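Hey, sorry to bother you again with one of my protein questions. I've been puzzling over a protein and I'd love to understand its fold better. Take your time with it, there's no hurry, and the full record follows here:
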Amino acid sequence: MSVVRDLRVLLRFRNYRRLLAVRLLSQGADGVYQIALATYVVFSPERQTSAPAIASAMAVLLLPYSLVGPFAGVLLDRWRRRQVFLYGNLLRAAMATATAVLMVSDVPDWLFYVSALCVTAVNRFVLSGLSAALPRVVDAERLVIANSLSPTAGTLAATAGGGLAFLVRLVLADSDAAVVLLGAGLYLCGAAASLRMAPQLLGPDPESVRPRLSAALTGTVGDLRAGVRHLAAPSRREAAWALGAMSLMRFCYGALLVMLLMLCRYTLTSDPDDGLALLGLALGISGAGFFTAAVLTPWAASRLGPGRWIVVCAASAAVLELALGLPFATTPLLVAAFLLGLITQGAKIATDTIVQFSVDDSFRGRIFSVYDVLFNVAFVGAAAVAALMLPPDGRSAPLVLTVALIYGAVGATGAMFHVKHRPSAHPSSPLQ
C-alpha cells in the first residue's frame, strides 16, 4: 500500500519522530487528565449531573481560551517552539499536581475549575505549536502524510491515555486524584522528550523572532489583524472556508458529545460506573475511526482534493448521524461513534493540510491559534445549545435533527464553493 510505504519513509525523518514523541506523550497526558475531570464532574455518584452543569463546566474550562488563543499565536510566532513544549509540559505537570491536591481537599468547586483551566490553557500553546512546527521536520511532498499521522496519532494517544485512566481508576479504588497524578507524570515525560531536539529546530525563523515579551503583547492586536488579512487573501480563500466548515463540524461534535454523556449517565445504563465504562467504549471505538481516517484520507483526498473531501465528510455525517442517532440505542450509537470519528478526523486532516499549504511560516502560529479558538467557541456554543434542548435523560430528536441539518449545510455550501471557485492545486501538494 502506498500509505504504508509513505509512512515508512516519513518515520525515517529523525526530527519528525522526535516531534511525534512529544505529541504522543503530551496528548496521552491530556487523555488521562480529561478522563479524570469527566469522572470527577460527571460520573461521581454523589453528583446529580445535568446538561446545564456539563455546559457550565465546558464554558469555565474552554471559553477563556478565546482570550488566551490569540496571544498564544502571537507568542508562538516569536518564541522558539521547542522551548514552548519543554516549559509548557513542565508547567502543566506542576498544575496537574495541584489539581490532584484540590480533588482530595475540601475546597470550593470554583477553585478546582481554576486549576483545571490553567492546565488546559497551557495546552493551547502546546497543540498550536505542534501543528505550526510540523512543516519544519518533513518535506512538502510528505506533509499530507504527516498531517494524517500526527494529529490522528495524538488523538489515539489521548484515547489510550483515557483507557489507562480507566484502568488506574479501577485498580486504585476510584481515585480520580491518582489518575491526575499519572497525567502529571506523562507531562514530565513530554518535557523530557522535547529536549532531544535543538532549540532552534522548530522555528520560527530568526528574522521573525521578537524576544521582548512586552513588545509581543503590545503588538498582539496589530499582528492578529495582519494574520486575518493574510488568511483573507484571494489565494487563501479555501483555507478560510475550511476553517469555517471545520468549526461548524466541531459544533456538531460538541452537541453530540453532551448528548452521549447524558445518555451514558442516565439512559443507556442505570449505574454510574457502567455508564462510565460505556462512555470509555464509545471513545475507544471513535479512536478506531480516527485511525481509519489517517489511512483513508490521503487516498480519498488525493483523488478529490482536500476541500472536496471535507464536503464528502460533512454530507456523509448528515445522513449517518440522523439514521444512527434517532434510535437512542447502544449499538447504533457505537456505530455512529466510529463513523463520526472517521468523518471528523478526516475533515480535520484535510483542513490542516489546506491551512499549512496556504499560510506562510511566519503566520502559522497565529492562524493555528485562531483555528483553536474557533474550535473552543464552537464547542462551548454547542454545549450551551445542547443544555437548552436536552431533557434530563439525554434523548432529544430535535437536537439530532439540528445537527444533521448543520452537517448538510456545510456539505452543500462547500460543494457550491468548490464549483464556483475551483481551487487550484497547491504547488507541492500530492492531494490534488
